[in-house]
Amino acid sequence: MEFKRKHTLLNKLIVVDGTGKCGKSLMLDILSCFQGVEKQEYNSFLEYIPLAYKYKKITKDMAIAILQTEIDTELYNNMIGRYTNTRLSDDTSVYRYHSPGKYLKRSLEEDGPIICEKVLAEKPIYICWSHDLINKSDIVFEAYGNKLEWIYINRRPIDIIYEWDKKQYSQRMSQDPTDMQYNLQYKNTTAPEIASGWEDEFLNISPHERTVKMIYTYFKLNRDALQKKKQYKNLHVFNFENLVTDPYREIERLKNITGNEILPAFDTILAKAKCPRILDKKTFLERESDVIKNISSRYADLLSEMHAMYEDINKLSAINSDSIETV
Q: What's the mean pLDDT when you consider all of the chain?
């Protein structure tokens, strides 16, 4: 028996990926300002099916079938205004989108097979975000093929670590019932999947050191995965620092990715995000000092390694024009 989805609804999918607090939200806000782009979404299946496939908990045919069917389901629901999120503080809220009336109008219109015709006519671009999916993304690239565009956001590790410490992410992982991720059984407790192979260390170091080691591990896995795919035509690396200091330059790259023009709502998005902005070196040094004072020298050494990995990823942002097709 083999599972296969022969006919798909999806027109184009843009996945915005990166480590938590790298700036994906700003990129999604900007993308939503292009003609034909839907409001941003988060779809957990996009992270957990590749996770299951990575550990051989699901067959390849079933993984691809689920990825294709679920994204078609989400696009269909968008096209008929179903499950529209009205929670004001959510990134996926319809009220964060520049034209919320579009989804309210859709909820009153016809559903069913006519949606196929609407997708063909309107060519909607579905956008969503993920967390560190690039390091297990082979199955995603295969499932969506030339309908997929992948944007990876690279940000200075010190800023990410600082933001994680403020949110106390490392204290919550595998402990807080509202922390929605898959954990590994280890002895008589659990640890997050990112700690695979260093569970004892994860459980016994301080929260600050745990944050540093987790982000170091994400950077290494992501850097290696990005380098393996650096010639993929549909893989695009953006630096957060460039995005906030020179957004108009980055817009030209996004025009090529979406194939569409920017809408006037873009100016409002930039104003809310205080862009273009100057990145204050003093603030960065203060953050770096704040991180270092709470960790031992062993974990402080990882900071310089992370900076080197950040620069490695930074170099990939220039690779686009001479890239080749993926699957």
A: 96
